[in-house]
Amino acid sequence: MSFVEYGDTIKDGDTAIVFLGHESMFPVKVQHGSKTQTKYGVIRHSTDLIGKRYGSKVTCSKGGWVFILHPTPELWTMNLPHRTQILYSTDISLITMMLELKPGSIVCESGTGSGSLSHAIIRTVAPTGHLYTVEFHQQRAEKAKEEFQEHKVEHLVTVKNQDVCKNGFGVSDVADAVFLDIPSPWEAIGHAKSALKIEGGRICSFSPCIEQVQRTCLAMEEHGFTEINTLEILLRVYNVRTISLQIPDLGKAAKDNSSTGFDSSNQSNQGSLYGILQQGTAQFKSGVPLKEMVGHTGYLTFATKSLF
C-alpha cells in the first residue's frame, strides 16, 4: 500500500479506510492478529482484511458490513488524526492549481502540521518530484515523518524540525513552489525567495486573519514578488430535491375556447371549463442551498518570484 501507488490487495502493515457511510469512516492500521471494533461488530484483521481486495465488502461479527477502501490524500484529509487545524480539499485543490504543481515539481512547505496538504502535494509531484517540509514543533515533525514512512512515501519527502523564519528551508534555488502556513509568514518571505529557483517560481501563504495578509503582501512586495493577489474560497453545498410548482395560467385555454365557439353559459360545459382553467402542478428537480454553510477558513495569498 502506498498513497501514490495503488495496490490491489490488503497487506499486513497497510493503512486502510473503514467505510461505514459517507458521514462515518476512519483509518485503521492493518496488523496480523489485531481486531477493530465498529458499531456493526468486530473486524478481525487476519481473516477479514489481510489478503482481501481493496473495495471489498466485509461482514462484521454482528452481521453488519463495511467497505475497506484504499487510502488517498482526499480520504486521509477527512480521517487523519488532528494535531493541528488542517486544510481541506476545497483550499488544497486551488493551492495545487495556482502553484502550478505537477509530477517532478520541487516544493517547500512550512508548517507540516497534521500532513493534510503534504499528502496531496506528494501525490501530485510523484514519482520524480520532492517535498521539503519544515515543522517547528518537534513531536509533530517526528509524527509526520513516521506517518510518511507508514504510507510508503518517505522517498518523496524530507521532514525538517526547525524554525523556518530563522533558518529557512535548508535548500536554495531548487523549489518550483513554496507554501507557508505559519503565524507570521512575512518573516519567512526572504527564505522562501531564496528557496525558489533563480528563474522564478510561485508562492502561497495561508492566513486566517486579514492583518496577517496585509503584512505578508507588504513583505512580498519588498522582496520583489509580482502578481500578488489574495483569494478566499467559500464552499456552498446544494441539496437536490423534487419541487412542485403550479403551472401558470396565461389565459391561453380560455382564449382558445372562445375562438372555437365554446359556450360557457351552458351548464353542461361549466364543469369542463372549470377543469380547463384549474391550475395544475408540475414536479421537477432543483438544487436548494443548505440553510447553513461553512464560513471563513482562511485567506490564500499567491505571488510570483520576479526574474529581475
TrEMBL record:
PROSITE patterns: SAM_TRM61. GO terms for biological process: integrin-mediated signaling pathway; tRNA methylation. Coiled coil: none annotated. It catalyses: adenosine(58) in tRNA + S-adenosyl-L-methionine = N(1)-methyladenosine(58) in tRNA + S-adenosyl-L-homocysteine + H(+); an adenosine in mRNA + S-adenosyl-L-methionine = an N(1)-methyladenosine in mRNA + S-adenosyl-L-homocysteine + H(+). S-adenosyl-L-methionine binds at S114, G115, S116, L117, E135, D181. GO terms for cellular component: nucleus; tRNA (m1A) methyltransferase complex. It is found in: Nucleus. It is an enzyme of class 2 (transferase). Keywords: Acetylation, Integrin, Methyltransferase, Nucleus, S-adenosyl-L-methionine, Transferase, tRNA processing. PANTHER family: TRNA (ADENINE(58)-N(1))-METHYLTRANSFERASE (PTHR12133), TRNA (ADENINE(58)-N(1))-METHYLTRANSFERASE CATALYTIC SUBUNIT TRMT61A (PTHR12133:SF2). This is tRNA (adenine(58)-N(1))-methyltransferase catalytic subunit TRMT61A. The lineage of its organism: Eukaryota, Metazoa, Chordata, Craniata, Vertebrata.
